[in-house]
Write a structure and sequence with these properties.
Elements lengths: L2 H8 L9 E3 L7 E2 L5 E11 L10 H19 L2 E11 L4 H17 L3 E9 L3 E11 L14 E5 L4 H9 L7 H12 L5 H6 L7 E4 L3 H12 L2 E5 H5 L6 H4 L3 H10 L5 E6 L4 H11 L3 E8 L9 E4 L22
Parallel strand pairs: 4-5, 9-12
Antiparallel strand pairs: 1-2, 3-6, 4-6, 7-10, 7-11, 8-10, 9-11
Helix pairs in contact: 2-3, 4-5, 4-10
């Protein structure tokens, strides 16, 4: 099977939503965002051995490869429009490619996001996707918009994907049913696109939780020049943490929730006066959100730092064995 046969067989996407004037099959796609909208663009790469195991189900890999990119659009409050795929393959395995494409295109269809081009080549397994979305000018949920007094929220639940990774690494053992649930969260993340859209005009700043809650919240804090207070005890007992994660030894549970990556939930700030509007947005999107702290003026020289407190507002004592640094590709 040659390169162009491979593309025609597996990646010829019939979807062509409004905003895509010309899809794949030419030298370049032609996009036409709605009048008054900005084009939001993001790229993510998934590399075998770094981001996924060689044994992963190819359909799950396809789903996740697009999901992590759509999560970036969700964090900006952008509506998905189109995407491209650059794919390096050690060999052209038709059955494997069919499953990969099925995972990719099912999620693309669910979000009305058209595959409009890309490239294929021989090489170590690597998927590099670029997504494009549209957001009305002035309504993007930017990282630099948090203000002191804002509440801090997270969507969904945190830590289960990291739990699965710890099991894969042989660092902990859990019942088979617990591992199955955690593995599904790691391999089949659900991008919070509907929530991102519903939060436009309600939230101020937003990021997706891809590298760990504290690390990704830190991006917001640094961009906005502020600090934050996170109630660690309340967070760990809240609906933002599953029973499976809560049942882990405390140091590991904290590591999973505060520093575990691959959750692809949203962390965002919103004015305290918008609490009802935030809950209404969450209900409209069909995903729970939990208030976990507040944005505050930073201590001298400490902009970008989130401090952990207990239920009484005192400094939270992190137990020995908890590792709270976020994921870094080069660390």
């Amino acid at each position: 099977m040659g390169e162009f046969d491979l593309i025609r067989r597996h990646f010829q996407h019939a979807l062509q939503p409004a905003g895509v004037a010309l899809g794949n099959g030419d030298d370049a796609a032609l996009l036409a965002p709605a009048p008054g909208c900005h084009l939001a663009v993001s790229t993510d790469m998934l590399v075998e051995g770094r981001h996924f195991l060689p044994t992963v189900d190819p359909r799950a890999l396809g789903h996740k490869a697009l999901a992590v990119n759509l999560s970036d659009l969700a964090a900006m409050g952008a509506r998905p429009l189109a995407w491209t795929l650059a794919l390096a393959l050690p060999r052209a395995d038709d059955a494997w490619l069919a499953a990969l494409a099925a995972g990719l295109l099912a999620l693309a269809d669910a979000h009305g996001c058209a595959l409009v081009g890309g490239d294929t080549t021989a090489g170590p397994l690597n998927l590099c996707l670029t997504v494009m979305g549209e957001v009305p000018a002035g309504q993007a949920l930017r990282r630099d918009a948090a203000r002191p007094g804002d509440d801090v929220y997270v969507s969904g639940q945190l830590g289960d994907a990291r739990l699965a990774l710890e099991v894969f690494r042989g660092r902990c053992e859990v019942p088979a049913a617990t591992f199955a649930r955690a593995r599904r969260r790691m391999e089949w993340p659900q991008p919070r696109v509907a929530l991102g859209l519903a939060l436009r005009g309600v939230a101020r700043a937003c990021a997706d939780v891809s590298d760990g809650l504290l690390g990704d919240l830190g991006h917001i804090l640094r961009a906005s020049g502020v600090g934050a207070r996170i109630d660690a005890e309340t967070l760990m007992q809240s609906a933002a943490v599953s029973d499976d994660v809560r049942a882990l030894p405390k140091p590991l549970a904290l590591t999973c929730v505060l520093a575990g990556g691959d959750d692809y939930e949203l962390v965002f700030s919103a004015p305290a006066a918008a609490r009802e509007a935030v809950q209404a947005a969450a209900q409209a999107a069909g995903v729970a959100v939990t208030r976990i702290g507040a944005i505050e003026e930073p201590a001298a020289g400490a902009a970008g730092t989130a401090r952990l407190v207990d239920a009484q507002g005192r400094p939270y004592r992190v137990p020995d064995g908890a590792h709270l640094a976020g994921f870094d590709h080069f660390a």
